[in-house]
Design brief:
CATH superfamily of the largest domain: Spore Coat Polysaccharide Biosynthesis Protein SpsA, Chain A
CATH class of the largest domain: Alpha Beta
CATH topology of the largest domain: Spore Coat Polysaccharide Biosynthesis Protein SpsA, Chain A
Number of helices: 10
Strand content: 5-15%
Helix content: 40-55%
Mean pLDDT: 83
Strand order of the largest sheet: 3-2-1-4-6-5-7
Largest sheet: 7 strands, mixed
Number of domains: 2
Shape: elongated
Number of strands: 7
Order of helices and strands: EHEHEHEHEHEHHEHHH
Length: about 350
């Protein structure tokens, strides 16, 4: 007797209600003391406005009461949609989980510690609606309320370093309060800890970015999840993002260029030693011979790595159908500029 076929697991059905105007995405981790007030403040900020909205709270594997509080609040708050991750994946993954579930025309992010003020959200959305030349708005905590030097000093250094390396000039990369047009979020994906570099990724995806001052409050409950060790992680991630922005479409220029710089002196050294050998001298015991061979071999390996990268980037775009570029609509024509027939 043939066994009945088992049905494949199905993905959860999408929510049936109409898509909102605004999706607010907030990753939370061990914020049980702030969660109820956070949800209430978002409702107070957006409830009186003319926009429909949803709040996607992504619990990043909290071991406190956050999941239970979210479940309780969601039972009585129709615009709250919790997402509970199986473990602590990090802020970038939590944001990506929220982005994948966001349905609004505009997407807003902020932290879950009540230091960002949800009352700033309507002004950001008004700017996006009234100014079609802006695709992303990044908050700037001009009057930052963090007193600890271990938070302020690394932030200042990181902001200057990232602005210099990426060419995206912002005063405050670390401010979580940001607003985007949906199409910008759809063009980027976050891995590792790249949430710090969302403005750079958005610029690479074609976004036009402005920075506006926003309010900032001191943390009154819970503990900060950041320390001075974050500076070292930022430097490592910065190396990745600079390579990604400059050489993603042309890896051979990065690896091959470095390979040629190494190979050229190696070839010169070996050429010189060949001339010495032809003149009758023994070169077998010279350290210069080892140096020349090593430089040529390392240069050749880097060039091969660049060629491999070129093949992979073509597979990435052609095999997966991902675009190499993005487009935007024509700007509105000025009166009287149309060509006469």
């Amino acid at each position: 007797m043939t066994p009945a076929p088992t049905s494949a697991p199905t993905r959860p059905a999408p929510r049936a209600e109409a898509a909102p105007d605004i999706s607010v995405v907030i990753p939370v981790y061990h914020e049980e003391d702030n969660l109820r007030e956070l949800v209430a403040r978002v409702g107070e900020a957006l409830g009186p406005t003319r926009w429909t909205f949803e709040l996607i709270c992504v619990d990043d594997g909290s071991r406190d009461a956050c999941p239970a509080i979210l479940a309780e609040l969601a039972a009585t708050t129709p615009w709250l949609h919790p997402v509970i991750l199986a473990r602590n994946y990090g802020q970038s993954t939590a944001l990506q989980a929220g982005f994948e579930r966001a349905r609004g025309r505009y997407i807003v992010t902020l932290d879950g510690d009540l230091q960002n003020d949800p009352l700033d959200i309507p002004a950001l959305i008004e700017r996006l609606e009234s100014d079609p030349s802006v695709d992303m708005i990044s908050g700037w905590r001009q009057q930052r309320q963090d007193k600890a030097l271990s938070r302020r000093l690394p932030s200042v250094l990181a902001n200057r370093l990232i602005s210099w390396a990426t060419g995206v000039r912002l005063h405050d990369y670390g401010c979580a309060l940001k607003a985007y047009r949906r199409e910008i979020i759809e063009r980027i994906r976050l891995y590792g800890e790249l949430h710090r570099f969302i403005p750079s990724l958005a610029r690479e995806a074609g976004a036009r970015i402005v920075e506006v001052p926003v309010r900032h409050h001191a943390r009154t409950r819970g503990q900060s999840k950041y320390g001075i060790d974050r500076t070292f992680r930022v430097i490592l991630d910065l190396v990745l993002i600079v390579f990604f922005l400059r050489y993603r479409q042309r890896p051979l220029h990065a690896f091959g260029g470095l390979g040629l710089w190494l190979m050229t002196p190696g070839v010169v050294i070996l050429g010189y030693l060949l001339a010495v050998k032809l003149a009758g001298e023994d070169i077998g015991g010279r350290p210069l011979l080892i140096a020349g061979v090593m430089l040529v071999l390392m240069g050749a390996q880097l060039i091969v790595a660049g060629l491999t990268g070129e093949l992979l980037i073509r597979i990435y775009h052609e095999g997966s159908g991902r675009p190499q570029y993005h487009t935007r609509g024509l700007p509105p024509a000025h009166p009287g500029t149309a060509t006469q027939p």
